[in-house]
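@channel sequence for tomorrow's demo:
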Amino acid sequence: MADPAHNQVIAMHGWSGDSSAWQPWQRHFEQHGWHWQSGERGYGASRPVRPRWQETTGCTATRRVVIGHSLGPHLVEAEVLGSATDVVLLTSFGRFVPAGTAGRPLRAALMGMHNALGSDGERAMLERFLARAALPAPASALPPGPLQTGLTPDGRRRLDQDLLRLLHTSGLPAGFPRTARVLVVDAADDAIVAPEARLELLERLQDHLDSPPVHWTLHDAGHALLVPDLLVRVQHWLDAPPATGPTT
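structure tokens (generated this afternoon):
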């Protein structure tokens, strides 16, 4: 079993989410000896949290794992991400909007979402986004988040800032470590991240990393990855020696 003083996870939710979605993950990982911290952007009722690695002076087997969903890895501080020994990217991306003319419709859609924030159309816009994120499951399968608790004025400002950050992503998250062991988890039915963005992420990781990433594509799953055993599979991958970890 992992030593909680040596092995840590910092998890970050994506756009319009919050840290409560990690609660099942946290319970499971803590039961298996990992120390868990969830980052929080504070869109709704929860206050912002910017986790840092715990000091582990004298430890020789420290594991520092970043798990990020969607925009999440881009919301982790570069210094924190840069110190990670392992990174798990859940339906994530480097550049969200495909370059050139292929990205024009998505760019226009994001600007429409930006204009809807703070307007009478805000709730309907967020409901549409969450419904697409949940597909092929119904939106009711998603855990409650900021839409249910209500956006605060500061939370709405951060939500808008992060939407614009999403629009302008152009590569790997700042600080991405070259030496990290990386797992990329994609969803075959992802209605949020474009296929071009998924492919570009893998290509950039291949070029950036000292060792190639492990890539899983989950069938019958969408952007929200409503897959009950995924947390178990990820924990097993992290605990397995690199040579015996699962492959695509």
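heads up for whoever presents: The chain has one domain: 1-42+60-248.
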